[in-house]
Known about the structure:
B: two-stranded antiparallel sheet, 8 helices
Amino acid sequence: MNNIFVYIELEGSKVADVSLELLTKGRELADTLKVKLEAVVIGHDVKGLGKELAKYGADTVWVADDAIFDPFRTLPHTAVMCGLIEAEKPQIVLFGATCVGRDFAPRVSSALHSGLTADCTQLEIGDHKDAKTGKEYTDLLYQIRPAFGGNIIATIVNPDHRPQMATVREGVMRKELAAKPAAGEERTIDWKKYVKDTDLAVKIIDRQIEERKIDIKGAGIIVAGGYGMGSKENFKLVHELADVLGAEVGASRAAVDAGFTEHARQVGQTGVTVRPKLYIACGISGQIQHTAGMDQSAMVISINTDPEAPINKIADFAITGDVNEVIPKMIKYYKQNSK
Amino acid sequence: MKENLKIVVLAKQVPDTRNVGKDAMTPEGTVNRSALPAIFNPEDLNALEAALSLKDRVAGATVHVLTMGPQRAADIIRDAMFRGADGGYLLSGREFAGSDTLATSYALSCALKKINPDLIIAGRQAIDGDTAQVGPQVAEKLGLPQVTYAEEITEIKTNTLIVKRRLEHGTEVVECPIPAVITVNASAAECRPRNAKRVMTYKCALAKSEIAADPESAAAKRVAAKPALQIIEWAAAEVDPDPEQLGLQGSPTKVKKIENVVFQAKEAKKLTSADNDIEALMVELIASHTLG
């Protein structure tokens, strides 16, 4: 009772990264609250995931296994999740902010009349005092998220309703094996109690799931490399930094022309126009043809050996130095300081 | 498809978050809407187009817009009428102030029960909150099935719709019975432009409170002569709600704290490749939430 639930999303038979990231965060929250971490798996042929989920800290793994749950449909998932929450009364429920999580978590919140905060970037436990009533609350979930197009950061709490629910995007939290594996005890959800025939009203006729495509247009953070990266081999550094920061990789035309990376990543006049919240330009001089495609970025960091490089005119932070030295340091200090 | 298919589009007038100033938030942490330019939420325009394209294909279908907001939100209803909607409903009143997504969907569901449409279409999400919650929450409150991230309604059958959905890594085609709630993705067809003739006709469309504000205006007189121009306006009491579930008190989520994230470093801050410079930068980026 009053434990933490993490909804486990499946991609085929594989657990989605976002769910493992949530387990890692959930483990930390559960330790702070001294409660258990429970994973909820709803799918088909999903038995035996307990061991993997235990590695990421799941004390209990709830399983509803039937063909009606795969592929995902809103209503059966909602019914099972609501039924289990009402029976087990978790205090916190976390979902990935994916097409699946963002589809059915709001329905669960609506059915249970409890608050849901979308796309949180940070989750913490803390106390709260209601400004009006003076009522004090301990150990609430702080749901921290940007709003208003990223212009503000809001901390949201659910003082009076349970469970406290939040969604988190993939790559926002870190995925890490638990210090010691948890029990991962599998328990079967008696889902037939919860799912009605009418929950099967929507029928899936066709599904076409493609490989992940390069999409630098929608990326919140872009790490872009230019000719100054030196070689195709060295361009991997750009990818390494991007992976660590959960960013997409962009490039200047010079880097694409030199064959360091593919054209789909080219930013600028003859490439894509991007407006990320952070643009890190690595070894890019900043010709107008390039900056035209990225000068709307909310923040620009440049790394260049030339302190007079044009890119520095639009940069918020201009690092004068060698990419081979600076990028590994950025990775190191990001890892050291991020939660 | 049934005759006289009644479609309601849920739409929101949103602050243009691309131009947010310092006074955008009230001291209580709610949005100070009057300080911002207001626009038709972009994905709600995609939703409107989906509805209008159904109206084109189904004889006798009607499209009405339902919005909750202050008096000036009637602007988006007029805009929708310029583009082809038959009319609209404005849900307005102090009782709704401070609503989170759940209180908003409750209020909308009360109005929808009164309208009793066959199909509800909404944008996937609004640009001021980006939550994508109101559509599914309304569907749950009304006990209806939902189809999210719709890109196209490809086929209309007797009592079902075939809808193509856009997912992260692909597409899915579903068959959904009506009534239902459909939320439309930005990748769907763009909304048709305003029609000049309709602009001439509907620029005088007014809501009750707008008429009351200036009853002697030429537009108010035209509405009096032609009731089809009237935008239906409901106060909270008129949609028969449980007052406990409205507005700030009906909202389970509370805003505890707001921090502004305004980057105004015009002059580039100069850093070297020294360890302490790079570490200070990464710490600053993490603290300002620029990096997850």
